[in-house]
Amino acid sequence: MVQFKALILVSLVIMTLNSCSGQNKNSKATQTEETVKKVMNDTIFISKAQFQIMTNKMGVLDIEVIGDNLIAKIANSKNPILKIELGDNYIIAKGNNIFNSSVPSECDYFYPLSNDNKIVTKGKHTINLRKIDKVTE
What we know:
By secondary structure, the chain is α+β, with helices and mostly antiparallel strands. Helix content is 31%, strand content 33%.
């Protein structure tokens, strides 16, 4: 899925740059940035500085998000993919409706979604993440 998104992103950037060949450089940058935003609008990046770990035990990771802009973006997004900087790596978290018995694929954690595909939080700032145990064949 990530490779497919990257391929789409590269294709869109190349098409945008080719179609803007007669315009000035400022226009190219603006259109390229807009293309990137449209392709990656379902992924929210959360850096170390933007959250605090509240709980991290037995497959449960509760994070408290810091920053009103980020909180608003998370609250208003429908079923976003969260890419969270944890230690020296990033973890991927996807939403899962609270009434589903299955878990999402191709991610490290999942978080609960309401029926309108919004992230269910504890209070206003805390996101509850559940670790997905990877099954090896």
